[in-house]
Amino acid sequence: MKLEDINITEISNNCITLTFNNINHLVDIFGKNDENLNVIEKQLSIETIPKGNKIQISGNSRSVIIAKYTLFELYNRLKVGMNISLNEVNASIRLAREKMEENNKEIIYKSIIRTQKKTILPRSINQDVYIDSLYKKSLTFGIGPAGTGKTYLAVVAAASFLETGTISKIILSRPAVEAGERLGFLPGDMKEKVDPYLKPLYDALYDCLPDIKVERGLNNGTIEIAPLAFMRGRTLENAFIILDEAQNCNKMQMKMFLTRLGENSKMAITGDPSQIDLPNKSESGLNHALKLTKDITEINQINFTSNDVIRHPLVSKIIKAYENE
Questions:
Q1: Alpha-carbon distances of 231 from 11, 155, 176, 260, 261, rounded to whole Å
Q2: Following CA atoms 254, 256, 262, 266 in sequence, which dihedral angle do they give, to the nearest 10 degrees?
Q3: What's the pLDDT at 3?
Q4: pLDDT of residue 253
Q5: Which of 54, 116, 280, 323 is the most exposed place for a label (fewest CB within 10 A)?
Q6: 3-state secondary structure 122-146
Q7: What percent of the chain has pLDDT over 70?
Q8: 93 CB-near residues (< 8 Å, 6+ apart)
Q9: Those residues with Cβ within 8 angstroms of residue 174's Cβ, 6 or more apart along the chain or in another chain
Q10: Is the pLDDT at 235 greater than 60, yes or no?
Q11: Is the pLDDT of residue 133 over 60?
Q12: Which candidate, 99, 51, 107, places its Cα nearest to that of 76?
């Protein structure tokens, strides 16, 4: 955020005025009928008075500062080409709050993911660290509850790597625990057998790449569906490999998967240790791998919490309720 973009006038500890020198984005920042401002007001218990290219913010001094950085964040997202939805407003409030807790005066991203269809900025500090790790480390574990974006961000990062030519293939894998790995009993070819289990990964691909590019990639092998049970013996080079729902791997499956990593490849392993579906209470290969690799500097383990949930705000409350049960 450059100082010439927004001027700040401090009226008192509990009241400031922001002046936007570039008015092109104001409608998007404030929202239709000021709906974005209404969300910010409700969540932070403040009052906003927009007038022309100015907005006055008043309330508790801490909440006023959070509101200020929330508006900065919305402006920043617009400048990089993102569309502002209510989810982005909630994400901006979350980031502003987290930065306040860390006593940071600015929201500075380590990484931004750009694809042909979308530009992605993190919606929490943990997401920021996670994206940075996906770019810098050969192997990243994304651990935590549903709705934190760990799988989605891995797929979008893989798409970005493919578009820039950093890798030549995306490989998507997921244990088919619900079918007991007995994929032969399901109808259709191999792709059709595992499609139900990989739907979230497909959704992310279609969200960030043109449909025709996804279809072409699936047809020519640039985007490969590789059931975990069929990956033994391979060395995966020049690829971005994603293993989703990794909590449902056993120890031998996880060891097999981890040792597939080849030259110029990236690997992202995502899972939620609280949702293990393995039969007979078998030890999760994910939990075992996390213990074994925690001191390997080339590997990052990013732990998401219910505070990182970016779906409907109610989802976060539901997860916290189960955690406190």
A1: 63, 19, 13, 8, 11
A2: -20
A3: 45
A4: 92
A5: 280
A6: CCCHHHHHHHHHHHHCCEEEEECCC
A7: 88
A8: 39, 40, 43, 44, 66, 70
A9: 194, 197, 198, 201, 227, 228, 243, 244, 245
A10: yes
A11: yes
A12: 107
Overall residue count recorded for the chain in this entry: 325
AA letter at 161: F
Cβ pair 115, 92 in contact under 8 A: no
- Alpha helices by DSSP H, listed for 84-238, are 86-101, 125-136, 150-163, 190-208, 211-220
CB count in 10 Å sphere of residue 40: 26
Q: Three-state DSSP class for 167?
A: coil
Distance between CA atoms of residues 70 and 75, nearest Å: 9
Give the Cα separation of 190 and 98 in Å (integer): 44
Residues 6+ apart with CB under 8 A from 118: 156, 207, 208
pLDDT tier for residue 325 given thresholds of 50, 70 and 90: confident
- What is the C-alpha separation between 259 and 112, in angstroms, rounded? 29
